[in-house]
Each structure stands twice: as structure tokens, then as C-alpha cells.
Specification:
- This protein is of the alpha+beta class.
- It folds into three domains: 54 residues, Molybdopterin biosynthesis moea protein, domain 2 (Alpha-Beta Complex); 128 residues, Pyrimidine nucleoside phosphorylase-like, C-terminal domain (Aldehyde Oxidoreductase, domain 3, Alpha-Beta Complex), CATH 3.90.1170; 152 residues, Molybdenum Cofactor Biosythetic Enzyme, Chain A.
- The strands form seven sheets. It has a six-stranded mixed β-sheet, sandwiched between helices.
- The chain is elongated, with a radius of gyration of 27 Å.
- The relative contact order is 0.09.
- About 5% of the residues have low confidence.
- One of its GO terms (cellular component) is cytosol.
- It catalyses: adenylyl-molybdopterin + molybdate = Mo-molybdopterin + AMP + H(+).
- It holds the Pfam family MoCF_biosynth.
- Its EC number is 2.10.1.1.
């Protein structure tokens, strides 16, 4: 790469895209990398502020921004196990199912102005290896920017963008950074796999018909967004043994997740936490630093051939638009194990502001997850 005056660059080869910005109209490359500069190009280059320009000089120790962006893409989406076939990039790890799938989960956009974007090929839960991402971005002269991890993404969604900061970078520096992803990529998409859900409705007031069950329709609607449906539903009074038996029968019937609604507070009639404990499930946490949703309970029951989450949902999940339930549900539906310290980390960002216009998940609620 060599710097020279634009007026003297006729016949030289551009080594990067030249961007033209017209406010409110466009921002795009007026000339692409590899363009051979003509006499007619000089006024155009000067008009976009290019009094001097970089032209291409071969250097085997350096890598151009376009090629470097491809390396960063592979680190993001494939790790080091990648190859290219028929002009398309495929991840051997994804093709072999190493990350939970049998087909490509993401693909690159065409390189443009030294940038490549990572695009989702399927619906699912986005996982981001935060430590790897931070290490790569700490190298300097290179960057990968992603969406928040543990959020729902759809096919066609933009997941990340990659580029180097200068026009060229030392090959050995980029190679050193790439070793961070030797054991796997920074990004993964876990498909939603839970299809059979059970709802255990609790409370004397519902059981005896004093009020209508308004909780179950809310749960049904939200799990349907992830392709699941209710296959088991029973209503019990505030008898912990009946609730325990109901949970176990639901699991025996094939339920992959169990939601117990109501009875999660500290009143004498609130027996749901005890009932869940008596199933033999491992309690991850009773309580969460989230409002609405402080009385949430998460546990896992070992059914032998599968781990079944049993969740105790507080009443707020019925009448608040967004609660702890909305934060944990995508992970539960993707069978992504939730740990106690992850729930504890929800305190920062765990306060829903109940905005007049809800933009969740495109807001700060639950982003500590």
C-alpha cells in the first residue's frame, strides 16, 4: 500500500473502496477496491475529499481489509474448522452437528467497504462467547460487534459485523488472534427444541371456580411463539401433594417442560414452591433479582432420558407485559441450561421500566443475562 497524490494516480489500482456520502440520500462506494483510476475519476475523487489516496503495492506480510474481514467472519461463525466451496463459506462444525445442528446456521454478507456481516440462517437462541469476543477485540486493529447473547433471533437477522480498523493488517497478528477460536466460534444459534409443555394451575380460587383461569392462556400464547404447545393441563387447589403428583404425571406423560402458575408468594396457602421441591427436582433458585418476577422458581427434574425444567411462575407473569418469564423462556425452549449465578447476574438490567411503548427485547431489560 502506497500513499500518493490523487492527481498523480491515473493508472494506479485502488486498494480499498472509496465511499461517497450524500446526507439523506446515500452512503455507498463510488469506486470499489481494484478499480483502475482513470483521468475522469480524478474530479470525483477530489469531490469526496480524497486529495491523497492509497494505491496497491503487494506485500506478502500484510493482509488487505477485505480478506481480513473474511478471517474475522470465520472466527465469528465457524471457528478454525472452515473451508470454502463454490464461492460459499461453510462451517464444518455446523455441518457435522458439533454445535447442535445439521446445517448451516449463519452465512456472511458480501464484503463491502472492508466489512462483512453475519446473517442468521435459522431461528433460535443466539449464544455469544463473551470471553472470546473480548479477547479478539483486545488485540487492536480488528473488531467484531455482535448483538446481545441469549436473545431470540430469526432467519435473516443480522448477528454481527466484522472488520479491521486500518486498510491492511499484519498477517501474523491476525493469525495469532484467530487461535482464540481454535476450539469453536464466537457465535452459535441453538434451535428451539422444546415442543411439549405442561401447565399446572394452582389456587383454591381457580379450583373452586371463584375466578376464571387467566394465567394459562398467557403461557400458551408465549410458548406458541417458540413452536411449543400445551399437552397437559390440570388445576389443583392449594394442596402441595396434589401439585407434586401433577408435575410428576405430566413428566411421565412426556412433558419436556412444566410451568406451575400461582402460589409462589409467602402466604400460608402458597404451596407451589414446596410442591416443586417434593418432586425431587434440583432447585436452581427460588427468587430472582428481577422486577416484575422476584418470586420466580427454577428447577430441573432428572427424568432419566432428559432434564425437565419445572418453573414456578409468580402472578406478575399473568398481568405484566414483560417479566422474568420473558427473559428465561427463550433459553428454556432451546434447552440451554440456566445456572444460579446467571440468575443472580440479572440484577443489573433486571428492573423493567414499564414503558408506555414496550420495545422488549430491544431494550435494557434482562440484558445482564
Amino acid at each position: 500500500m502506497k500513499l500518493m497524490k490523487t492527481t498523480e494516480a491515473v493508472g494506479q489500482v485502488l486498494c480499498h473502496d472509496i465511499t461517497q456520502i450524500i446526507p439523506g440520500v446515500k452512503k455507498d462506494a463510488v469506486f470499489r477496491k481494484g478499480h483502475i483510476i482513470t483521468k475522469e475519476d480524478i474530479p470525483v475523487l477530489l469531490s469526496v475529499g480524497k486529495d491523497t489516496i492509497y494505491i496497491w503495492e503487494n506485500d506478502e506480510t500484510m493482509m488487505h481489509e477485505n480478506e481480513a474481514a473474511e478471517v474475522l467472519y470465520r472466527m465469528s461463525a465457524c471457528g478454525t474448522n472452515s473451508n470454502e466451496t463454490d464461492g460459499e463459506r461453510h462451517c464444518e462444525a455446523a455441518e457435522s452437528g458439533a454445535f447442535g445442528g445439521t446445517a448451516s446456521k449463519m452465512h456472511p454478507s458480501p464484503v463491502k467497504e472492508g466489512k462483512i456481516e453475519v446473517i442468521a440462517d435459522c431461528d433460535g437462541l443466539l449464544k455469544v462467547d463473551s470471553e472470546k469476543l473480548k479477547k479478539v477485540n483486545s488485540f487492536g486493529e480488528m473488531m467484531i460487534a455482535t448483538r446481545h447473547g441469549n436473545t431470540t433471533v430469526k432467519k435473516g437477522d443480522k448477528l454481527a459485523g466484522t472488520r479491521i480498523i486500518p486498510l491492511v493488517i499484519k498477517k501474523d497478528k491476525l493469525e495469532a488472534a484467530s487461535h482464540i477460536c481454535d476450539d469453536g466460534p464466537i457465535l452459535d444459534i441453538k434451535p428451539f427444541v422444546v415442543r411439549k409443555a405442561a401447565i399446572i394451575t394452582t389456587g383454591n380460587e381457580v379450583f373452586h371456580g371463584r375466578i376464571q383461569d387467566a394465567f394459562t392462556p398467557v403461557i400458551e400464547k408465549k410458548i406458541a411463539e417458540f413452536g411449543a404447545q400445551m399437552m397437559f393441563h390440570e388445576v389443583f387447589d392449594d394442596d402441595d401433594q396434589k401439585i407434586t403428583d401433577g408435575c410428576l404425571r405430566a413428566i411421565e406423560a412426556g412433558a419436556e417442560i412444566v410451568f406451575c402458575t400461582g402460589g409462589m408468594s409467602v402466604d400460608p396457602d402458597d404451596k407451589t414452591p414446596l410442591a416443586i421441591k417434593n418432586t425431587g427436582a434440583r432447585i436452581v433458585s427460588y427468587g430472582s433479582p428481577v422486577l416484575p418476577g422476584a418470586m420466580f422458581l427454577l428447577s430441573y427434574y432428572d427424568a432419566g432420558d432428559r432434564l425437565v425444567p419445572i418453573c414456578g411462575l409468580p402472578g406478575c407473569a399473568m398481568y405484566n407485559k414483560r417479566t422474568i418469564f420473558d427473559i428465561v423462556l427463550p433459553r428454556l425452549m432451546a434447552c440451554d441450561m440456566i445456572l444460579a449465578d446467571e440468575l443472580a447476574g440479572l440484577g443489573e438490567g433486571g428492573l423493567c421500566l414499564n414503558c408506555d411503548v414496550c420495545t422488549f427485547p430491544n431494550c435494557g431489560f434482562g440484558k445482564g443475562f
